[in-house]
């Protein structure tokens, strides 16, 4: 008797809870009012993206929870949701990876099942990420969100943020986007969702000669990504934003190109020196008696052991190639001034160091001791 009563009351309790579902019409009405007063909220972006879709996260109650659970629980039209689901937070928080943690001690089945999107960033966070990305580089998409100086930029924040992150997923500001998409890959804001793929294209890389300050100096584009990921680590922040930075960048490129020429010349000089000593080493027995020009102690005559030479060569080649290819990539920004900074740097470098290496080569072949040795060998 007792047990059947218990089950009866339990069934009664469950049916009451089921009957208490917050009607879709009420949830939709709440969302409409909320998004009228603050259209930039992440939940409003989800609602827009959900039109005509039937995913679980598109249910009205779920969208209401996107807005009212962590982002803006204090808004007036969130009262019904907040009371029902026992939300105690003060807002401006990202939804945690496990959204159920947001709910207080609620018995409401709907609250527990129609949850907000896991890892959905708060509107405040979205606004600061977009502002941070766009102040670092003026990418296409940035023009949609003007920085007005208020806490929230007034635009479709989640959409712009995802658009920027789709173009440059490796930016440090895109961590929250990655978490969101890892939790719900079918969101239209995520790269793997169908229909969202690349219709809007990567940021404008101008692949023709042009002028203008803002260019991604050694920054990744879709196509150069693999080649550049190594160099990226060093140069991520190198995007000139105004005339002064732009010309300083050009000056730096010019100097780097000259440095490159200097370094290659130095390597040529070293090679000449090594070959001289190698020849001397080959003629060692003969040289002792005839070539008086050389010091006679063997330790000072042959300081360049094979392994040291090989190591030095390796290091030089490494630095030279890194620098050379990096400069090549800079010319591939197709920015006229940057292009000619590099080219002029190489030209001036040859002007300065070219004579030096030639003279050394001539000296080394006209060296009388060298001639004697050449004659011997
Ligand atoms: C839903 O909205 C209707 C009409 O505004 C209202 O009468 C009803 O009480 C609401 N239901 C809940 C559960 O708030
Ligand atoms: C809401 O949750 C808190 C603890 O998180 C609990 O103390 C309180 O009783 C709950 N209120 C309701 C109405 O369930
Ligand atoms: C960013 O680029 C857009 C168009 O490409 C331009 O209208 C806008 O003034 C630029 N903003 C800044 C801050 O440079």
From TrEMBL:
UniProt KW keywords: Copper, Copper transport, Ion transport, Membrane, Signal, Transmembrane, Transmembrane helix, Transport
Membrane-spanning residues: 246-269, 314-330, 336-356
Protein's organism: Clydaea vesicula
Keyword Translocase set for record: no
Protein origin, superkingdom: Eukaryota
Compartment(s) of residence: Membrane
UniProt family annotation: Belongs to the copper transporter (Ctr) (TC 1.A.56) family. SLC31A subfamily.
GO CC list: plasma membrane
Signal peptide region: 1-19
Xref: InterPro entries: Cop_transporter
UniProt cross-references to PANTHER family, sorted A to Z: COPPER TRANSPORT PROTEIN CTR1 (PTHR12483:SF27), SOLUTE CARRIER FAMILY 31 COPPER TRANSPORTERS (PTHR12483)
Protein name per UniProt: Copper transport protein
Organism ancestry: Eukaryota, Fungi, Fungi incertae sedis, Chytridiomycota, Chytridiomycota incertae sedis
Membrane topology summary: Multi-pass membrane protein
Any GO MF annotation of the entry: copper ion transmembrane transporter activity
Location (main, coarse): membrane
């Amino acid at each position: 008797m007792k047990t059947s009563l218990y089950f009866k009351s339990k069934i009664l309790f469950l049916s009451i809870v089921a009957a208490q579902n917050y009607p879709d019409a009420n949830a939709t009405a709440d969302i409409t009012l909320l998004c009228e007063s603050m259209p930039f909220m992440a939940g409003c972006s989800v609602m827009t993206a959900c039109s005509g879709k039937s995913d679980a996260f598109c249910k009205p109650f779920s969208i209401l929870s996107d807005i009212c659970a962590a982002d803006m629980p204090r808004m007036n039209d969130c009262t019904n949701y907040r009371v029902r689901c026992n939300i105690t937070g003060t807002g401006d928080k990202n939804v945690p990876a496990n959204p159920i943690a947001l709910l207080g001690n609620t018995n409401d089945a709907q609250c527990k099942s129609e949850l907000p999107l896991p890892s959905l960033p708060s509107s405040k966070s979205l606004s600061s990420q977009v502002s941070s990305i766009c102040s670092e580089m003026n990418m296409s998409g940035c023009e949609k969100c003007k920085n007005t100086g208020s806490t929230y930029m007034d635009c479709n924040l989640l959409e712009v943020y995802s658009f920027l992150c789709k173009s440059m997923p490796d930016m440090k500001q895109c961590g929250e986007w990655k978490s969101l998409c890892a939790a719900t890959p079918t969101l239209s804001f995520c790269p793997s969702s169908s229909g969202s793929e690349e219709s809007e294209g990567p940021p404008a890389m101008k692949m023709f000669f042009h002028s203008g300050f803002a260019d991604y100096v050694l920054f990744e584009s879709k196509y150069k990504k693999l080649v550049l990921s190594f160099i990226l680590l060093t140069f991520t922040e190198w995007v000139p934003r105004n005339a002064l930075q732009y010309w300083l960048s050009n000056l730096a490129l010019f100097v780097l190109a000259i440095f490159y020429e200097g370094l290659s010349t130095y390597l040529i000089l070293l090679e000449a020196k090594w070959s001289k000593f190698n020849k001397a080493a080959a003629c060692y027995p003969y040289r002792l008696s005839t070539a008086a020009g050389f010091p006679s102690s063997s330790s000072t005559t042959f300081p360049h052991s094979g392994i040291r030479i090989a190591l030095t060569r390796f290091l030089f080649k490494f630095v030279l190639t890194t620098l050379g290819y990096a400069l090549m990539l800079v010319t591939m920004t197709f920015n006229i001034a940057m292009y000619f900074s590099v080219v002029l740097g190489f030209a001036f470098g040859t002007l300065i160091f070219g004579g030096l290496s030639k003279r050394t080569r001539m000296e080394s072949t006209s060296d009388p001791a060298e001639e004697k040795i050449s004659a011997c060998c």
